[in-house]
Amino acid sequence: MACFIVPVAEAVVTTIIAKAAKSKETEPAALKAAADNGSFGMESKIPFSQKLKWLTNMLWGGSVLLAFEHVWHGEVVPWFPFLTAASSPADASAMLSEMATVGVSMALLVTAVWGVMLLVTNAMEKKALKVQPASN
Amino acid sequence: MTLLTTVFAAIICTIIWYKNAPNSKMKVGILCWMYWGASLMWLVDAVFEYTELHAEYFTPAPVDMLNDFYLGLSVVALGLIIWLVILLVKDPKGVVKAALFKKK
Lengths: 136, 104
What we know:
heterodimer; A: 136 residues; mainly alpha; two-stranded antiparallel ribbon; 3 helices; 68% helix; B: 104 residues; 77% helix
């Protein structure tokens, strides 16, 4: 019905936070890549704003495609109130319930996957930093 | 079917991105994020639908399946259009700029 609105709301917040984080960040610390063949050469530590952009991209991208699905099914229309479920109180109640369950779960799953990605990249960065003094 | 189509699109894009990494001039990463984000969201949708329909969820009517596949292809096409617009606007290779400001 309108489950994509929850990830959209999260995407707006993360976009603002990413922009604020980017403006505060200084030059990233350079470190050598741990790649055996050395094809990636010098790598720099991925700034937090860049990592947050991964989440933002997933949320915006997923929400746009999901919104298209809602248009396809006639749940989103180009005229007021834009959501067909918002036209009657009973449907509006069902819509809010769906947003609270499906929509919140969507936002949580995407954020959880991003969290796992953060843990993995942080571990990889730590490993690369450990390798660096030995290679100098 | 929509979920499956998007997941396949996400996997193909990720393979293409990995093959060309670290060169990201074609900005395939945008497609990866978009399709993976949509796949995760449709996965949640599928889980909720499964809790309602149980085993029936895996035996959809052929018409529904075809419609969902049609939707999946349309979603993939929309993703590609968004990616193409971003690519042409950001123009990382400078091709559009070169074509527009080419001296005759």
